[in-house]
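Support case: user asked for a sample of complex input and structure output to validate their parser. Sending the pair below.
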Amino acid sequence: MSLWPLLGIAVLVIGFAAGLNPLIVIVASALTTGLAAGLAPLHIIGALGKAFNDNRYVSIIWLILPVIGLLEREGLQERARIVIGQVQAATVGRLLIAYLALRQVTVAIGLTSLCGQAQTVRPLIAPMAEAAAEVKLGPISDRLRHLIRAYAASADNVGAFFGEDIFIAVSSILLIKGFLQQSGFDIPPLRLSLWAIPTALMAFAIHGVRLWRLDTRLKRLAAEKQP
Amino acid sequence: MFAAVSVRSFGDRANRRRIGNGAFWALLAVSFLFGSELGDVANGILVLALMVLGSSAMGLGSPKTTSVAEREASARVKGNSILTPALLIPAIAIVGTLTLGRLGIHGTPLADPKQVTLIALALGIVVALLVAVLRFRPPPLAPVEEGRRLCDAIGWAIILPQLLASLGAVFAISGVGAAVGHIAITWLPLGHPLAAVVAYCVGMALFTMVMGNAFAAFPVMTAAIGVPLIVHRFGGDPAIMGAVGMLAGYCGTLATPMAANYNIVPAALLELPDRNGVIRVQIPTAIPLLVCNIILMYLLVFRF
């Protein structure tokens, strides 16, 4: 067995650690890996090109940019702020916990594209979370604003990852089933989904507690800024 | 859409790097319009060109948009009707996902069953755009200009998910997975069930971090450690192992820049100055969750 193709992984790690542009790091890693495995350069470039072309569908989501941009031009984010400002009980933590729960539950029943970073976080959830912080803490610094946005994105990811395997027809469940079948185990997808539930509950508990404590942390950070 | 963004980028005199921006979006448009007609090598060269332009030659354009004050005023006047198109997208996406797969003409499905969700989402987007244009009557170029504003904000990160998928393909034909699995079984002491469970879960997380995708890690780790050790030698349950093992991999997804769709693109989309900002807030969730998965698997897998 040749271990040389692992050089490509080393290139990735070093490249990312050195803070180089990821596009360069990835292409360099692909070339290193391919050459180490004894492939011809043109063959590697061809493989890159073919896979890039085959995966164009993952970029369909960008179609959404003109719509979001247009709505932002009309005041979408500002409107989201007004709406959240009317809810007295809203805090950053509570809002994001609610969103985490919504994301996890909807994904668990198969509605994966109901929410998402481009569909809901950028236009609605992030501005709402920022507004909730402004209502409670007054004007916030850019650093806090960016922290709140990062947490909004994280709520979406955690919810999506640890909800999707509860739905039986999702591709990861099919992959697990298919692979175990090759290994000689015939397992109904429902059993796999069932065993995804304990981890889903723990993911909600862990991330939920962190979001809940975010409110106290934001208060402290805001107080440090304006003594 | 990318072609229109490109044309406007070339014409943007306020951006010193307008040639770079214009060329980048133009190449991307070529890829989307004609990618299937080009050969593999031509597509590969296109990828290299995108890399060079994306990493060195792009700046921020200055598309026409509205000021914060104008937006606040507009938000007050137009009220919640601004939210309608944004909510229309997911609504249509759901209805489409549930119905498109079943619609067909003489038994031929209208939409590829595997891509139904994406097609439904795209449909929702187009309808929302139409509704927004008809209702708010913006200047004719506004959708393009606003699209360009967001495209420039995301910049090169826009092709990252596709490029990472391509890297995965090169890894696959080069035998990287087999090499990692080989290291895992030859170098780790796996004589105890707990050691095997820890190696499998941590291995899933680490390998996922490297590949950016738990789907690539799962077959390798399961063939190397999961099935031979946890199931055959120690008598574990394959269903629990598979389900929890995959989720252990997802803990790795939370912590890696290689999972660009989830971690890097949102950072760009939210205009965070630190492109690892999202990963930073996710790592403190990923680590305890991975520990929980290990405990969970150890407690359950040998019991059912």
